Amino acid sequence: MIELRRAAEDDLDWLDGLGRSCFSPPWTRESFAHALSGAGSLVLAALCGGERAGYLVLSHVLDEGSVDSVCTGPEFRRRGVGAALLRAAIEEGRRLSLARITLEVRKSNTAAIALYEKYGFLSLGIRPGYYERPREDAVIMTLELGDAENDNTLC
Ligand SMILES: CC(C)(COP(=O)(O)OP(=O)(O)OC[C@H]1O[C@@H](n2cnc3c(N)ncnc32)[C@H](O)[C@@H]1OP(=O)(O)O)[C@@H](O)C(=O)NCCC(=O)NCCS
To answer: Separation of 78 CA from ligand 1 center, angstroms?
Structure first.
């Protein structure tokens, strides 16, 4: 069973460790600390059988939301953790009356792109050379929250 809760200060080591093991370049510890403390951002932690399994960072400015990072620990993948986190982020976006949620994803990251598409995100375009280590284009994806057709959160 997957449970979600707001991440807290004492999750910082875990967030930092998981982020480092899954991303190149990883988020800095300071970025996680900022997201945990800042107004305008929400860090969600997913628990699988009581163990911390994944996280998602949602931030917003005015009515524009952004999924800044999402990650499931390798041993917990394909069990619905990423989906549960993304659904919760979309619900939070609706609660906050955001117009849309946007994100960037590496062009080669087919797993993440499939996850986002499953929940109604559409590709808006490409940011050439956006990522480093290795250099790669980003696909910009967005979900319009005002559009009832995009309410896939019950899937
Ligand atoms: C992308 C990621 C978050 C998915 O997390 P997850 O917990 O394994 O995802 P879920 O089990 O909830 O899968 C939900 C849907 O995503 C898609 N998906 C997830 N992993 C996939 C894979 N390896 N291949 C194809 N589709 C995949 C599927 O549509 C899946 O639905 P299904 O199981 O009904 O087919 C995870 O692979 C991850 O952490 N990757 C490394 C970090 C990363 O790339 N983050 C995104 C940065 S933009």
So the answer is: 6
CATH of residue 69's domain is: 3.40.630.30
Beta bridge partners of 64: 61, 100
Atom of ligand 1 nearest to the CA of 104: 48
**pTM above threshold 0.85:** yes
Give the tokens for residue 81: 């953790």
152 pLDDT more than 70: no
Ligand 1 atom closest to the CA of 112, numbered from 1? 1
Q: Looking at the domain assignment, is residue 155 inside a domain?
A: no
Q: Could you list the residue range(s) of the whole structural domain that residue 104 is in?
A: 2-150
For residue 155, name the pLDDT band (cuts at 50, 70, 90).
very low
Atom of ligand 1 at shortest range from CA of 80: 12
Report the catalytic residues.
Answer: 104, 116
- For residue range 5-26, list pLDDT tens digits in order: 999 999 999 999 999 999 999 9
Establish if 113 belongs to a structural domain.
Answer: yes
Q: Which residues line ligand 1 (CB under 6 A)?
A: 22, 54, 70-72, 77-83, 105, 109-112, 114-115, 118
Beta strands in 7-154 (DSSP E): 41-48, 51-61, 64-72, 100-106, 122-131, 136-144
- Note whether residue 32 is domain-resident: yes
Number of domain units in the chain = 1
- Cα angle vertex 155, ends 87, 52, to 5°? 45
